[in-house]
Amino acid sequence: MKDNRVSQVLKRMKEDNIPQIIVSDPLAIFYLTGYFLNPGERLYALYLNENGEHKLFVNALFPIEEDLGVEKVIFTDDDDSVGIVAKYVENGKTIGVDKNWPARFLLALMDKCSDSKFVNASYIIDTMRMFKDDEEKELMRKVSLMNDEACEKIIGKITGDKTEKQIASELLKMYEDMGAEDVSFPPIIGMAANGANPHGEPGDRYAKPGDAIIVDIGCKKDMYCSDMTRTVFWKEVSEKGKEVYDIVVEANRRGIEASKPGARMCDIDAACRDYITEKGYGEYFTHRTGHHIGLEDHDYGDVSAVNELVAEPGMIFSIEPGIYLPGEFGVRIEDLVLITEDGCEVLNKYTKDLQVIGND
């Protein structure tokens, strides 16, 4: 196991009077052990106890030959997996669990350990993961530059005879050829009115002159995620399109400028949102300004009007203001920023200059 991270978890457990926790999120287990497993519907959990009697519960279907520095407790599909876990936990003491542990496991364990109090302990590892160490920072830089390259390439592949779906499919093949492990999320290619849906799915639309095209993409490399958005225009851009684009780019710039140690997340959100509102488009900025990112595209934490959390060095989150005009078009510009000691480092380098493509 990664002893320094496990030690931090145990320290937080002691501070919060949680003597034992069951970590079931595969990414959280990876964060603590360096080993990733997708168990599907089967029980998979790392048990940490303040007394040091840690266990990794894993189905025999998934043989783990590596020495992870923790005793493995193996069971089969014929075994009562929850009952096996119950033999090791200390009934009568508080048990911390993950926020997303399936009810079929949690309720069964609550029934078997009726003398214990169960609490959501996800925040312990979630908040630790908000702060990237030097190795994680380098991995995030690497995958973000890969995503920059993919963004430039896929924008260059957009033609008038390809649908949003076809462009998205080309991107997936491109990521594979570049050595990415997977996408961070299903890519969003949104033309014209489809781009006015912030999370619109690629469809059968073809680009028409004047269309704004949102390209929101991300890939994974070495388990870490990238995420970025650029908006381009096909063949031509209207005055309204240029106006909206310029506003969003400036809002993005202001959000980045506000991203520094000591700034509250709500203040960073306001730096983007207040400018868009000032320009008369406030009602069309319909989502938070950003989200934290790392092992997941949407890690714990956000950049929103209600989050008073203070930015600290090591945090990485997105700055992605947008304006979405129903029935017309949308514009979003997104970069990832790494909070440094005196400001922030922007992880995305691909141009944010207004691009009108398709005229070659």
UniProtKB/TrEMBL annotation:
<dbReference type="InterPro" id="IPR001714">
    <property type="entry name" value="Pept_M24_MAP"/>
</dbReference>
<dbReference type="InterPro" id="IPR000587">
    <property type="entry name" value="Creatinase_N"/>
</dbReference>
<dbReference type="InterPro" id="IPR036005">
    <property type="entry name" value="Creatinase/aminopeptidase-like"/>
</dbReference>
<dbReference type="Pfam" id="PF00557">
    <property type="entry name" value="Peptidase_M24"/>
</dbReference>
<feature type="domain" description="Peptidase M24">
    <location>
        <begin position="138"/>
        <end position="341"/>
    </location>
</feature>
<dbReference type="InterPro" id="IPR029149">
    <property type="entry name" value="Creatin/AminoP/Spt16_N"/>
</dbReference>
<dbReference type="GO" id="GO:0004177">
    <property type="term" value="F:aminopeptidase activity"/>
</dbReference>
<dbReference type="InterPro" id="IPR050659">
    <property type="entry name" value="Peptidase_M24B"/>
</dbReference>
<dbReference type="Pfam" id="PF01321">
    <property type="entry name" value="Creatinase_N"/>
</dbReference>
<dbReference type="GO" id="GO:0008235">
    <property type="term" value="F:metalloexopeptidase activity"/>
</dbReference>
<protein>
    <submittedName>
        <fullName>Xaa-Pro dipeptidase</fullName>
    </submittedName>
</protein>
<dbReference type="InterPro" id="IPR000994">
    <property type="entry name" value="Pept_M24"/>
</dbReference>
<feature type="domain" description="Creatinase N-terminal">
    <location>
        <begin position="5"/>
        <end position="130"/>
    </location>
</feature>
